[in-house]
Design brief:
Blueprint (H helix, E strand, L loop, with lengths): L7 H8 L10 E4 L11 H24 L6 E4 H8 L1 H4 L1 E2 L13 E3 L4 E4 L4 H9 L9 H12 L4 H10 L4 E3 L3 H6 L1 H7 L5 E4 L23 E5 L4 H11 L3 E6 L7 H7 L3 E5 L5 H11 L4 E4 L13 H7 L4 E6 L13 H8 L1 H4 L16 H24 L3 E6 H11 L19 E6 L2 E6 L31
Parallel strand pairs: 1-2, 8-9, 8-11, 9-10, 11-12, 12-13
Antiparallel strand pairs: 3-15, 4-5, 5-6, 7-13, 14-15
Helix pairs in contact: 1-2, 2-3, 2-16, 10-16, 14-17, 16-17
């Protein structure tokens, strides 16, 4: 007996625990052939945004006691949003997305990719070669290239990670699947969903007015950085949540990146290791409805912020957790989209030349953006389930599991879409004045009847806001 293959949207919605009948409210359109690749990147992107939009519409329906509104997914808006960091302009200036030491390098047995966008990661990479942190980029590039060509990818990977840096040897999908790190991830759901207690607490209240803001009145503590987590919380901010991003003052962060993902949010610096910072966080947690964590496992737990402890301190809390590698031997390792592509075999699949040339890359940081929209969808679905049943909720996702979805479930039996060379992103770009200058940025791809067209506020300087909630209770 044969069964029809589920679409990516059907797969993602099932992973979120959504009712299949609600998929009838979805409609898609827009230009074809976007985000061209050997892997079905556009389907991943479309599916992630579609289920996020559907989860938002479902929550809006619950809170307004109205029918679920129609959802509109525009492939042009989706593709532009998935490459938003490339389209960003700050007073006409294009940010630098990858530093000179964030790239592929030839090794004695293949290729390795490093990530050194942050100064401390760059310094740790250079330390493995005995070079000081202030070594110029030109000298550093030559030194790394010369050293790596004489060493194996696994040796480099182990040495750099042991020093606190980031380097990943390129593998094929088969090699990753046979590796304990890959096998550990493959056995997990795309979206981990868990009810952590039976507290009869509901964080949502009845909703009225236009535009429909499914997350209106909800308070979100945003403990994320880089792309995936901030994309999730940027989406919750679009939908009406009071989102307060928390950064550690001792960790460097890119203001340029925040100009892309900081829409709708406020930002505060808190040292959770200090008595004052911990007290401020405790006060914020006492009034929070959602906590989104995008740091590697163990990073916030050392401050006592385990999922169990958070839910115990704030019954009815919805927690969204994101990491690079998910479960298994690398669960606590640092990671970024580009490195996960290399480790899991995506870069190998996307290679366009022989082994003497570097592996390839996806046309977008699709693992980051896709996981971000899936994480926002998981939080919204958890709020809907809590509206119906109460209880604290935990949603868990990882870039590595999203990579497995792309390589396995989405890839199976699919034909690649023909590339559309006529696509231009201008229709899905807009400009906004901000405290940081005039920003050109992508419009929000999450859309349904009555949904907001834009964020309530532009990004501001990192750490410039007060550690307090805007919304009254």
């Amino acid at each position: 007996m044969s069964h029809a293959r589920m679409s990516g949207t059907e797969q993602a919605w099932a992973a979120l625990g959504g009712a299949p009948a609600l998929l009838a409210h979805l409609e898609t359109g827009g230009p074809e052939g976007l985000l061209p690749a050997r892997l079905p990147v556009m389907e991943l992107a479309r599916s992630a945004v579609a289920v996020c939009s559907l989860a938002a519409a479902e929550l809006a329906a619950r809170r307004t006691a109205r029918p679920v509104p129609q959802i509109h997914v525009d492939d042009g808006a989706v593709a532009t949003a998935f490459t938003s960091e490339r389209h960003l302009r700050i007073d006409g200036r294009a940010p630098t997305n990858f530093a000179p030491l964030s790239r592929f390098w030839r090794t004695a047995d293949g290729w390795v990719r490093t990530h050194a966008n942050y100064p401390h990661h760059r310094a740790r990479l250079l330390a493995t070669l005995g070079l000081p942190a202030d070594t110029s980029d030109d000298i550093a590039v030559d030194a790394v290239a010369a050293s790596f060509t004489e060493r194996t990818g696994n040796e480099i990977e182990q040495t750099v990670y042991a020093a606190g840096g980031l380097a990943v040897a390129a593998r094929t999908p088969a090699e990753w699947a046979a590796d304990p790190r890959g096998a550990a991830v493959a056995g997990t759901p795309l979206v981990g969903r868990e009810r952590t207690d039976s507290a009869p607490v509901r964080r949502t209240t009845p909703l009225t007015g236009e535009p429909l803001l499914p997350a209106a009145g909800l308070r979100v503590l945003d403990l994320t950085r880089v792309i995936a987590g901030p994309v999730a919380t940027r989406t919750l901010a679009l939908l009406g949540a009071d989102v307060l991003r928390i950064d550690a003052p001792q960790l460097p962060e890119s203001q340029d990146a925040h100009c892309d993902t900081g829409f709708g949010k406020r930002s505060v610096n808190l040292d959770l290791g200090s008595r004052c910072g911990a007290a401020a966080f405790d006060e914020l947690l006492a009034g929070a409805d959602v906590v989104v964590i995008g740091y590697r496992p163990g990073a916030v737990e050392r401050f006592g912020l385990t999922s169990q402890a958070l839910a115990a301190r704030r019954p009815g809390l919805v927690i969204g957790r994101l990491s690079a590698w998910g479960h298994g031997p690398w669960a606590r390792q640092r990671g970024f989209d580009s490195l996960v592509q290399v480790a899991t075999g995506i870069a190998s699949v996307e290679a366009t030349a022989g082994a003497e040339h570097p592996p390839g890359a996806l046309p977008a940081q699709a693992l980051d953006h896709g996981t971000g929209y899936l994480l926002a969808a998981a939080v919204l679905r958890a709020l809907t389930e809590q509206h119906d049943e109460g209880g604290s909720r935990l949603a868990t996702l990882s870039l590595a599991r999203t990579a497995a979805w792309l390589l396995d479930e989405l890839r199976a039996g699919r034909e690649n879409e023909a590339a559309d060379s006529s696509y231009g992103p201008e229709k899905w770009l807009t400009e906004t004045d901000s405290p940081l200058g005039r920003l050109r940025h992508a419009v929000a791809p999450v859309a349904f009847d009555g949904s907001p067209a834009d964020w309530s506020r532009p990004p501001g300087p990192l750490g410039a806001d007060a550690a307090a909630w805007l919304t009254a209770r």
